[in-house]
Design goal:
Largest sheet: 5 strands, mixed
Oligomer: single chain
Strand content: 15-25%
CATH architecture of the largest domain: 2-Layer Sandwich
CATH topology of the largest domain: Nucleotidyltransferase, domain 5
Shape: elongated
Number of domains: 3
Distance between the termini: 71 Å
């Protein structure tokens, strides 16, 4: 787009005797643009010959979108409508003639209002620990392979124990949990899990679970309450979820090298002990100090 200074140069060149064809070739513009510049001292604002038709997302369209979003709550997470699919359906099924951007903004606003708000919870010392598996790649002498790592984290202190296991079977989980409690030298009143079938064999109503018999026996032996998140609510055990990310992004980056699982577990135990010396932002005690409270 030509600017005022471009108009000035063109008009001065014409004043000095240059023809339209020569000006167009010199300044690299079409002869039509040169003629426009010669007819006015500055670019003229663009004006519509007719006003654009106002196409808005009507209340009927909004109600249709609301109904689809409500139905999506019962659909699988990966088969729910994106704004682009809503726009296509509106256009094809409801004869919507407006823009995609209007649909996108409306959907974003609706989902923003419906989004859950999670409040940070506080726990008493010794009340709650959380368990989960992380998966990391490790370089062994025979090559690189993925290893399951059981993490147990205290909610109050964020003190964490990690142990690499040969599998995620029940006997591995039992062994890893016993190792964790021995490492901490303490037993929580509650030990939380997602809903692995090796621990919770059947999901009943609410938080009720039919437990693996051997897990029940372990909980009875150590006298902790075996508790579980609601299905698809891993955020309910955010402490250990964050530690899984720390394992992947910090303790296992770069890819660890180990001779065997025992060698890897010595390294993971060292990471845990070193982490206990750290003080989390906003806290006055170190992680290890808070664990001993």
């Amino acid at each position: 787009m030509l600017k005022v200074e471009d108009y000035g140069r063109i008009r001065r060149a014409h004043r000095d005797g240059m023809g339209i064809r020569e000006i167009a070739r010199t300044f690299g513009h079409s002869r039509r643009k040169i003629r426009e510049a010669l007819q006015a001292p500055e670019p003229q604002p663009y004006t519509l010959t007719q006003p654009r038709p106002r196409r808005v997302l009507t209340e009927v369209h909004q109600q249709w979108i609301d109904a689809v979003l409500a139905a999506d709550e019962q659909a699988p997470p990966k088969q729910r409508h994106l704004a682009t699919q809503l726009f296509r359906r509106l256009r094809d099924e409801e004869h919507y003639a407006g823009s995609y951007d209007q649909v996108r903004r409306y959907v974003a606003a609706r989902r923003g209002r419906r989004r859950e708000t999670f409040l940070p919870l506080s726990y008493e010392p010794g009340q709650r620990a959380e368990s989960d598996f992380g998966h990391i790649w490790v370089d062994f002498p025979e090559g690189r392979r993925q290893v399951p790592v059981l993490l147990v984290t205290w909610a109050y202190s964020n003190a964490t124990f990690m142990i690499a296991l040969p599998s995620e079977k029940t006997e591995a989980i039992l062994h890893g949990t016993v190792e964790a409690l021995a490492f901490f030298g303490a037993v929580p009143r509650e030990l939380w899990w997602d809903n692995p079938k090796t621990v919770a064999t059947t999901i009943l109503a609410g938080r009720q679970r039919e437990l693996n018999r051997r897990w029940q026996a372990l909980a009875s032996h150590y006298r902790f309450d075996p508790l579980f998140c609601l299905p698809a609510r891993g955020n309910e055990k955010s402490h250990v979820e964050n530690r899984v990310k720390l394992l992947e992004r910090q303790w296992a980056t770069p890819v660890p090298q180990a001779n065997d699982l025992a060698d890897l577990n010595a390294y993971l135990r060292h990471c845990c002990q070193r982490d206990w010396q750290r003080t989390i932002a906003g806290q006055s005690e170190t992680i290890g100090g808070a664990l001993r409270m």
